[in-house]
Structure formats: C-alpha cells, structure tokens
Amino acid sequence: MTPDEAAAELGVTKRVLMDSYRRWGIPYLKVGKHVRFRTRDLHHWVDARMQRG
Fold it and tell me: Residue 29 pairs with which residues in a beta bridge?
C-alpha cells in the first residue's frame, strides 16, 4: 500500500507517517525509490500495540 493509503489506515497524516515509520518500527518495503507497506504487516504492527483491558 502507498504511504497515503497506510496513513489513512492508521488515522494519521502522510507527513506524520513518513516522518515516523522507521522510529515506530513499522515494516516497509523499498520499491525503487518508493516506500510501500504491506497491509498484513501494518495490521500485525497495530495488533501488537493494542492495549488489552
């Protein structure tokens, strides 16, 4: 998924995502000079950070 799509999925702006994805540890792929995110990796990353109450 593109950074725009990933940002929408996470509920953040593209700028916040692109400034933070490495620091946050979100898995990504480089396709040429472009950054891409796999949907399943993004969902696993979110699931791993869910607070259980």
Answer: 36
